[in-house]
Every structure is written in C-alpha cells, then in structure tokens.
Specification:
The chain is built from seven helices and 18 strands. It has about 350 residues and is α+β, with helices and mostly antiparallel strands. The chain has three domains: about 55 residues, no CATH class; about 140 residues, Trna Endonuclease, Chain: A, domain 1, CATH 3.40.1350; about 120 residues, no CATH class. Strand 15 and strand 16 form a beta hairpin.
Length: about 350
C-alpha cells in the first residue's frame, strides 16, 4: 500500500498529508486528468482506501512492476514514522530510493536533520539476518544510518544494526527491545525476554529525540557485580578472593566481561581500582605483559604479589561483591564492546 505518488511535473504527493476533502478532490481530478503516476514504475495511479479507511495509492494495472505489496500495518507505520520525525524537526519523506558504492537502497522513510541521514526500514515480512545485514551495509556505504523495525525476532544485536521487534496488532502496535539474541516470535508474551516494551509512538519519539542508543548512557546509575571465589595462591599457598568476571548492570543494560576483556579498555582501570578501594574489598589486580607484548589485567595475590591467570579461575562464578557506580565515558567505552541491546532512556547523549 504505497503512500507516495508523483504528478506530471515530478512532484511527490503523500497520502497522509491530505485531508479527507483534499484526498477526495485529488481522486476526482485524477479520474479526468490521469496525471498521477507510481514512482516505482511510472504506472497510472488509482486512489483507494483500506478497510480501515486509510488512504493509499495503487497501480491501475501492475504490469511488470516488481514492487512487493505492503500490509496496512506497514503503511500505518510509515505514516507514524514520518509524523514523529517531523515533530522533532527532521525533514522526513517516505519511499525514498538511493544508491551507494555497493548497491542501491530503498528506505521506507528517510529522515534528514543537519548532517544526519536516517533510513527507517519496516520489515514486516520474513527476512534472513544475512539479508538484513547486507541491506544495512548498503545504507552505511551510502552515508545513511539504518534503523530497523522488524516483525520477526532473531536478528543479531550489535552497534551496527539498530533494531527493535514489532509486536501487538493494529491499532496498538508496540516496539519490543530484546534482552538477548535468542528472543523469538514465540516469546512475544514472555516479559523476561524483553528489556523494554513500548507503544510504537513512544519508541519513535525516543528514536528521533535522541534517546535510543547502543549501550548505557553517561551518568546512568550502575552496579558492578564481581564474580569469582576463593583460590589458593600457587606461590605462597594463602587463600584469597579472586575475580573471574565483571558484570556491569544498569536499568536497561547488562554487560558481561572476563577480567581480561575488561582490561582491554585501560581507561576504565583507574576507576575500577578506585571502586575496589572505596568498597574495601580484599582484592588486587595488576597489568601483566605476555611474551608477545600484549598487556592484560589479572588477579594479584594480596599476600605475595603473585599473579593468577584467567585460565585457572574461569570456572569460579560465585558472587564476590556488588559495588555501586555511575557510567563514565570510560565505563561506557568498555560497555559498548559488550552491551546487549539498544535501550531507550530519558536523556540525550
């Protein structure tokens, strides 16, 4: 159900921009002038309404046009996306085609604000994760940020693929933010699989208002969960507490690191060490260097200074301590390497 057509002068006309009298007047004019055309194939246009009364443009004769038909949900979402973007000061138009060095793209909605270009894609029909990533790469190569509203869950969650799952039914569609990549269609009614479930208009307002991002936002309250257990030092034989994993938890994120992974972001080390000192935990860490010159973070015996590598303690996953923290630029950098989802927050980065 396309929402855009073109007139003889090449100007675009959008169905949701017209009032009912304007729509009826345009339909009458087109019956006599036949001046409207489909932008996909230049076929003649018929003005119609869906069973719910939503206006849309249709081919008089489809002919050889390969444009896939759309559901009413798809058409409604395009209108909601455009309206939400425009309210936040974006120049938004539906059904835009473009090109990149690696192939052409066609966005359900393209929103532009200052130097940013954001394509919002409604994927109502089934599509493989591989195809989704390929289409996302075409957007990226064309200088466009792609955001996906996908009916079928199971897509890879990463910084490179901002996406949410579409839930609910007309007129109450929702945006579901998955807690993990294992969330599937059968889990739509199971809250534990979703970090957030929002009305679709609320999500779109967050998207265009700058409150949809990958990983935790700076200033967010967090807790640092230290996981590990008791371990005997190989050198002095003393028993001490070691940490094998660190779990950074905020309201909408949880990031799981091995100690070695966390140590790769050295900027976080001074803050991490300060948290341990303030909490008065009998734990000590230090950086070591491998024979290949790679620096890594490891446990250090508080009695004799001997170090314990990750391989010897990775089976220890008991809770050692929970320390309150606040997401800083360094913690955010570390978290964005391992963040699970794109949360919607209450402030703009």
């Amino acid at each position: 159900m396309p929402v855009r057509c073109s007139d003889n002068a090449g100007a675009s006309i959008y169905s949701f921009d017209l009032s009912r009298p304007e729509w009826d007047a345009l339909a009458t004019e087109n019956k006599f002038r036949r001046h409207l055309h489909m932008p996909c194939c230049n076929a003649a246009v018929s003005l119609k309404r869906s069973r719910r009364g939503t206006p849309f443009f249709a081919h008089v004769r489809r002919g050889e046009c390969t444009t896939a038909p759309e559901t009413e949900e798809h058409m409604l979402l395009k209108r909601l996306i455009v309206e939400s973007a425009r309210r936040d000061g974006w120049n938004a138009v539906p059904e835009v085609q473009g090109t990149s060095p690696i192939g052409d793209w066609r966005a359900d909605v393209l929103a532009i604000k200052d130097a940013r270009k954001v394509a919002v894609e409604v994927q109502w029909s089934s599509q493989t994760a591989t195809m989704t990533l390929e289409r996302q790469e075409r957007y990226r190569a064309g200088g466009v940020e792609g955001v996906w509203l996908i009916r079928q869950p199971g897509f890879p969650i990463s910084r490179d693929l901002p996406a949410v799952v579409l839930g609910g039914k007309l007129p109450e569609l929702t945006a579901l933010l998955p807690a993990d990549e294992e969330a599937s269609a059968r889990h739509r009614s199971e809250p534990e699989h979703w970090l957030q479930v929002l009305p679709i208009d609320e999500f779109l307002n967050a998207l265009f208002g700058g409150r949809f991002w990958f990983g935790p936002a700076i200033g967010t309250p967090a807790s640092v969960h230290l996981l590990g257990g008791l371990h005997y030092c190989y050198r002095c034989g003393a028993e001490g507490t070691v940490v094998s994993y660190v779990n950074l938890v905020t309201e909408h994120d949880r990031c799981w690191f091995s100690l070695r992974e966390l140590g790769k972001v050295e900027a976080v080390w001074p803050e991490f060490n300060a948290l341990l000192i303030s909490a008065k935990e009998p734990i000590r860490f230090a950086y070591r260097t491998t024979k290949r010159g790679e620096r890594y973070l490891c446990n250090e015996c508080i009695h004799c200074g001997a170090f314990t590598g990750q391989n010897y303690i990775q089976g220890l996953i008991g809770r050692v301590a929970v320390i309150d923290a606040v997401i800083s630029p360094a913690w955010r950098k570390a978290a964005c390497r391992h963040a699970i989802t794109f949360p919607v927050g209450e402030f703009t980065l």
